[in-house]
Amino acid sequence: MKKILVPVDFSNTSENALKVAVQLAKKNGSELQILHVIELAESLFGAEQFNVNDEQIIFFMKMAEKRFTKFLEKEYLEDLDLKKHVEPGSAALAIKETVAANEIDIIVMGSNGATGLEEIVIGSNTEKVVRYSDVPVLVVKNEIKNISISKAVFASNFELSNLEAYKKAKKFTDGFNASIHLLYVNLPGNQFSSTPEIHEQMRVFLNKVEMPLSKDHIEIFNDYTIQDGIINGSEKLNADLIIVPTHGRKGISHFFNGSIGEDVVNHSVLPVLTLKI
């Protein structure tokens, strides 16, 4: 966790994420990079890509930089290794480009959650970042004055394709000396699996990471949807953090199949860490 990126839009939720990122940066000696994106309608300028030399763009950039500087005048940011970015355009694209250009290790974002028609058709910026990001994304909704994780839930179907995500999750939780609990959501109908079948799948999975199967760290939760099972199962376990591997589906595949990671991010009140597989 050498470089942490926090996108901010001056809202309370983005400041909640910034405060968490500051705690992580101090804990790990990380460089903190803060990004503000000026989301301007392309139709105003009649071009597929923004022309950063356009007088109107320059005006908006200066205004944003002034507000950005004022926003960052906070005591908890003092004595930190900060790098600031102000970019015009699409927030999701600007975040992706900033990650690639600066070798970011993790993104910390705030979210109110997308609901209703926005959730189905448009999606929030956080949801889009979760969908497309190649680096882990930690999503925070509420203010956390002291991020102390003692119990995390790793929710998965425990197919072998999730092994690398689990290793990253374990490394993250080890940094907090937190226990990690494996959560499998069992659904009714033709997606139902018996307890012995689930335990066998978990056993094979854990053998690959040379970890024993401990019943104290396994939860099989029955629910009607995977999203509800992850959220309700994590609540039952009194977890501090939910960790979800995500496939990052795109286009029509995403529309019909959705993304469990995005759904959990939208509806969970707990912090959620998503890991691309």
Written account of the structure:
This protein has helices spanning 12-28, 55-71, 91-102, 116-122, 125-132, 163-174, 195-208, 226-236, 251-257, 260-267; strands spanning 3-7, 31-38, 82-88, 106-110, 137-140, 151-155, 179-186, 218-222, 241-246, 272-276. Strand 7 (179-186), helix 7 and strand 8 form a beta-alpha-beta unit. The chain has a ten-stranded mixed sheet with strand order 3-2-1-4-5-10-9-6-7-8. The protein folds into two domains: 1-145, Rossmann fold; 148-277, HUPs (Rossmann fold). Helix 5 (125-132) packs antiparallel against helix 10 (260-267). With 277 residues, the protein is of the alpha/beta class. Residues 116-123 and 252-257 have low confidence and may be disordered. It contains ten helices and ten strands. Helices cover 41% and strands 21% of the residues. It is elongated.
Topology:
Layout: E1 3-7, H1 12-28, E2 31-38, H2 55-71, E3 82-88, H3 91-102, E4 106-110, H4 116-122, H5 125-132, E5 137-140, E6 151-155, H6 163-174, E7 179-186, H7 195-208, E8 218-222, H8 226-236, E9 241-246, H9 251-257, H10 260-267, E10 272-276
Parallel strand pairs: 1-2, 1-4, 2-3, 4-5, 6-7, 6-9, 7-8, 9-10
Antiparallel strand pairs: 5-10
The CATH architecture classification of the largest domain is 3-Layer(aba) Sandwich
Number of helices: 10
Helix content: 40-55%
Q: Which homologous superfamily in CATH is the superfamily of the largest domain?
A: HUPs
Describe the sheet with the most strands.
Answer: 10 strands, mixed
Number of domains: 2
Shape: elongated
Chain oligomer state: single chain
